[in-house]
Each structure stands twice: as structure tokens, then as C-alpha cells.
Amino acid sequence: MGQVTWQEVTMAALVILALALWISGSSLVDTTTVTLIVISMMLITGIVGWEDILNNRQAWNVLIWVATLITLADGLNKVGFVTWLAQGAAALLAGKPPMVVMVILVVIFYFVHYMFASVTAHTTAVLPVMLAAGMAVPGLPVRVFALLLVYSLGLMGVITPYASGPAPVYFGSGYIPRKDYWSLGAVFGLIFLVALLAVGAPYLMAIYP
Q1: Distance of CA 5 to CAs 17, 114, 154, Å?
Q2: d(Cα 133, Cα 138) in Å, to the nearest integer?
Q3: Quick one: which of 19, 93, 168, 170 has the fewest CB in 10 Å?
Q4: Separate counts of helices (H) and strands (E) for the chain
């Protein structure tokens, strides 16, 4: 492969700088700013050219597309739509058997993620509402309910191209077409949810009677 070039040494130094700032400098420098600084240094040092950045059409496509969806999801959360939806759904379940309420609330919590571009934002906005709704139902196993909600957070990242942080990267690779990504996300998301409720719920009920 030949000798190590100065561009490779510079690139390695920039990677180390970015990692150091992401790990220990987050209180001083925003993570997005760190990325912009490193990219700027790569341009200044000639490691990459501006044409290289412009020619990466897939990256620009993902940036514009996902940024729009993240903004829309954040807007729905800020205006209180998601909280209103969750509270309304919980109110409609009044008087139903506790186990039925638990299953329906988990399903609602899971599919509401279509409105979010971040698992963290989903957890912050919806999890407290769902827990409060479940705790208000007499006889509902709160510990099992809480665990099912938390476990579902680890499964819902597959349902959309913006469902979690890594999702846009996978989608941006172009390996899976957009239509297939949405349809496969829905299919596998449903499989995971059914497995959680059909296997996970009885198991949790057995160990936390």
C-alpha cells in the first residue's frame, strides 16, 4: 500500500480530535459544530475537495429528507399533538380489562414512533404519559407494563428510515430502496411487536406475578 502519506496522518489526527471533542468536550462544543469543524479542516488541508462533497448526492438527499422529517416530528411534539393523542387514547380505554388496556397502550406507544425521528424524544414525550395512564388502571401490572414499554423502544428503530440515529445511515447506503424500506420496516416492526407481546409479556408476567 506504500508509505503513509501526510494526508492520512492529518485525517487520523482529525478523527482523534473529533472523538476527543465528542467524548469530553460536549459541554463546550456542540457535536454538530465538531463535525463542521472537522469537515472544514478536511477541505482546508486538501484531504477532500469541494467537488467530492458536492458529488455525494445520496448524502445530500438523506440530509434534506431526514432534516425535514425531524423538524416535522419535533413540531408535532412541541405543539402537544403526541401528548394529546396518547391521553385521548388512554381515556377511551377506561373500563376495559387491565390486560387489554396494557396491550393496547403498548401497541399505541410502539406505532406512535412513526411521528418521531428520535427514540430519545419519543421516550421523553410519550413514556411518562403512557406510564401515568397505565398506573391509573386498577389491577394493571405496572412493572410488566413499564418493561414492555421500555423493551419496545429497542425494537421500533426499524420501522422508518428516520426512526433512530443509525436508520438514516442505513437508508442512505442505497442498498434498500425507499419503498422496500418502509414496507419491510412495517413488516419486521409488526413481527417484533407481536413477539414482544406474545412471548415477552407472558414471560414477564411469570417472573413478576
Answers
A1: 19, 46, 42
A2: 11
A3: 19
A4: 11, 0
Cα–Cα distance between 41 and 173 in angstroms, integer? Answer: 25
155 phi and psi, to 5 degrees? -105, -25
Q: Which of 151, 140, 152, 143 is nearest to 207 (CA)?
A: 143
Dihedral (Cα; 172, 168, 177, 61), 10-degree rounding: -50
Instruction: Tally the residues of the chain.
Output: 209
pTM across the whole model: 0.68
- Rounded alpha-carbon distances, angstroms, from residue 209 to 4, 201, 203: 62, 11, 10
Kindly list the domain boundaries of the chain, sorted by start residue: 1-55, 56-207
pLDDT in tens, 128-180: 888 888 887 888 899 999 999 999 999 998 898 888 878 877 877 778 888 89
Residue 188's SS3 state is helix
